[in-house]
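Quick start: what a row looks like.
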Amino acid sequence: DLVNLLESVQIPVIMVDGALLIRRFTPTAQSISSLQPGDVGRSIDDVKLKVKVDDLAAKIRTTIETITPKEWEIEGVDGGWFKLQIRPYRTTDNRLDGAVILFLDIDVWKRALLAAERSRDYAQRIVETVPMSVVVLDRDLRLASANPTFAATLAAPRKTAERVRFFDLAAGAFDVPALREAVERSLAAG
């Protein structure tokens, strides 16, 4: 059953014993490494990986010694992204006997995250340079952020003003019925 399971799993998985010798690996492990069927029994140090990971053997040893699963985001040599997970391997009689190393493909997620971060940073830089006051309010109409122009208008550091109710700022100077109605109408409209 274990052999059938390992053959069908579409995740690169490498199992090593306590001496870091390869016990088993899934066929998809060949997509991220130089592993061949005859490599069972070789040291993990002898395996050429297609991912950028510093001192894999030390990471495995630490996981085994601490009996604590660990994970890292790592980049493939082709620029793709993986989540490297190392988990202690316990036998059926609950004896610690090595580690299981998984390489989860997170490339689509990581690229989307990096694109979102770039977009956020770009928008933030634009807001920072706009010569008019710009504020972002949360659902409770508290200041989530403000640009330097708005902070200069208040003559207060931006961080001092954040999380304060907008209509309480500047001793209530913004608490004008028409402005309050426009802001609340905008919030209600989503």
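That is the whole record. Helices lie at 2-8, 56-66, 107-129, 148-154, 158-161, 177-188. DSSP finds six helices and eight strands in the chain.
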